[in-house]
């Protein structure tokens, strides 16, 4: 009796999700933290300068950063098999990945349109533009993770497997 991996060896061009999910999730969390800090700075400046609530576009990116941190924590724990199978269902992971990707796209586009329609100058404008750049990076990172998750999901379904995780399979040598 010996153990053989369920999936074929990863190619040099496309590593399998178990090999790349932790660095990708770390990049997503780091980018979300950067956007959270930048947008919090802009919201604080706006509140102090205008004595009014910060714009919805800024608040939406703050919300998206928080959701992204929570979803990244969930997705990393689910991929590392730290959650029960019922909570870490492959379709639930795909939905969380896709919704977070959509939030990043919506937030970065909304802030970009907001800044284009205003006179923007000074340090706070540069910080807001950096928030747009990092939110676009976050969107791209979630596009990659969603694409890889969809690929792994359909690959596992084609092989008749129930999950998207790499587990050893017992091969009987007779």
From TrEMBL:
UniProt KW Ion transport keyword: no
InterPro entries in UniProt: Marvel
Subcellular location: Membrane
Domain of life: Eukaryota
Membrane association type: Multi-pass membrane protein
Principal cellular location given in the protein's record: membrane
Signal peptide limits: none
Parts of the chain that traverse the membrane: 58-78, 90-115, 127-154
Coiled-coil region(s): none
Protein name: MARVEL domain-containing protein
